[in-house]
């Protein structure tokens, strides 16, 4: 505890060189251990797929491992089962998703004293007193469903408890916010069946990455509240459809849903966003000119090198808190949470939120702004748990 407190103090000194409240920071660190922290988006499985490494011990590789998670007070970590949109045309999406799920199962098998996969919200309260990281599964990109509701049911049986319906390209389910081609103008006919079956099964519908028209189609159709597992507020990045607009936040709240704020700098600030988007265009042009397929190792290596040579600047803990503030002022404290996108955004994380040990820094910032302990309990986990419970209730009523 003392060691972590000193590390957090050092990290915050750079942010607030003349105004550190050590007593408040200590309170933030203690509160992180008391509350239930749920992070709805951590991209660890794809890392393990590319290169297996020991996540049961502390390392400086990526942003997640058991020891750092315990230091930060993390209780429930949603492992992202991410498949590249490029796999859909190859018919390999489900194969990749199944492989990633298996890797999470291997984590539990290798380190049963440290990790436990959960499939029901009641398991959080039952298992939370143990010093384990509870692993839930969220599928990022619905392509692995591959046009079959039987596949969707299979993924439910394997533990998938939310699905981001698309990623950076439109797919057979719906349109993507990142894709200028709008094939369906929202949900496809099959996508409508997917939404209904997700309601029946008890899988949360994730509206991150999807187009605005898809978002409104889902809200009209879904009987259960929805989540944005890792998104930010478009108010701060005007015209950036990947983030959710004020009207969408209002409608999300009306449905009882929750927006989980991501930590990516290019989601958080307009200046960083503009530099990032310009860089993305240059990267696409390079890949096209050199005939490099996006999503491949070669593409990722070039992209990593590009950002190292062309940094776009770093956001801060304050920027994340600004997005939380915006939602709270717009619709109240019951409709916002956190979905970091750790291991998913490279070097684009905010200063002070570099990995899973740093959640207390965000708690500190919120305490500084006058948030109560009860508010923080809601933001860091209880709001998401409430939605998960409601989704299970809607499912139970249909069975």
List keywords for this structure.
17 helices; 3-stranded parallel beta sheet; 399 residues; 6-stranded parallel beta sheet; TIM Barrel
Mind explaining what this structure looks like?
With 399 residues, this protein is an alpha/beta fold. It has 2 domains: 2-269 and 316-397, Metal-dependent hydrolases (TIM Barrel); 272-314, no CATH class. Helix content is 49%, strand content 12%. The chain is built from 17 helices and 9 strands. The strands form 2 sheets. Strands 1, 2, 3, 4, 5 and 6 form a 6-stranded parallel β-sheet that branches. A 3-stranded parallel β-sheet has the order 7-8-9. Helix 1 packs across helix 2, helix 8 runs parallel beside helix 9 and helix 15 crosses helix 16. The longest helix has 25 residues, at 373-397. The chain is globular. The model has no long low-confidence stretch (mean pLDDT 94).
